[in-house]
Specification:
Elements lengths: L12 H6 L7 H4 L26 E9 L3 E8 L5 E7 L1 H4 L2 H19 L9 E7 L2 E7 L4 E2 L12 H20 L12 E4 L4 E4 L27 H4 L6 H17 L9 H10 L14 H10 L11 H15 L15 H7 L27
Antiparallel strand pairs: 1-2, 2-3, 3-5, 4-5, 6-7, 7-8
Amino acid sequence: MASGGKTGKAGSFWQRLIGRSVERDEALTAGASPAASDTAPPPDLANTATSGLRDFDIGVEIGRGAMAIVYKATQRSTGRQVAIKRLALSREFSAEDLVDVRERFMREARAAGALEHPDILQVVDAGQDGNDAWLALEYVLGRDLSLFTKAGQLLPVREVVQLGARLARALDYAHSRGVIHRDIKPANVMLDRINGKLKLMDFGIARVGDGSRTRTGLVLGTPSFMSPEQLAGLTVDGRSDLYSLAVLLYQLLTGQLPHQSESMARLMQLIATEPAPDVRTYRRSLPESLALVLAVALEKRPELRYPNGEQMARDLEAVLVMDLQAEPAGAESVTPQDPAFAQTLRLDAGEAGQNPASADLGPAPPDPRQAP
């Protein structure tokens, strides 16, 4: 199941809440969504004639993470500038797992390589180098969104909401093709503000380690951004990515995460059982409509979240049209959560829990926000 439900013509939660149909405002995104940067046909990673690192002139290192090193490179066969990401699988995974991990990596790379969307970083090629693996990726300029998660460096609220709508639609596109990201976080989104380019990166990388033992106890994916069902090790679908996207937007808006703890065990408990604080706890000037959108996406139970990215995107655009004509004030100090907000959502903390391990969840429960 690629996404939590089907995209229909019926209004989404925010549209039902305000009792009117909000037409999509094309002016919000006109000129904002970048055109595809390359007109070449989509890569066939299983049958690329020049597949292999020998087709690339490797240049300087441009990035480094816990599991990968990224180099600037030029593809000899096309002259195209790319980024080569080398993943040290042999360092992170036990010998008995390496064959399975490499096979899973190639499956995920092929799936990611089939995605053609202006807001998704294109996978040009992929392969194996000994026991390790590599990806050749579209080379883009910009900074990842982690730069904009600290107080004093936050992006304008309108810009954050616009980016959120674009990311929700990019995820909707990927989910409709059976591809789940599993590691949505600011560091995996590249933004070029000058040219209006946005790129969601690293599709499928978190999937590589699923079910595998690692030498280092590595947790692939970032716990603070994981949905409750992902943390519990259950099967996830597109609604898990939308939960993570809501955490990302929450942090970009406030410089705070919905759930924070120095203890990993306590953090996991909070994500699994405690409702996320109203985003206005950290920024009182944000509109209630935006707080409601994030609250729906941050529901503990997947069936209570947005069923797909398109509905979340439409609600974010509705917030822009109706309540964000002017830029809100800056973030304020922490204040107690407004009890009326929780009442509006009709949340019962005792109902917070996990979806069953079985993929067959049965019919969806009644919408708790729909008036009887």
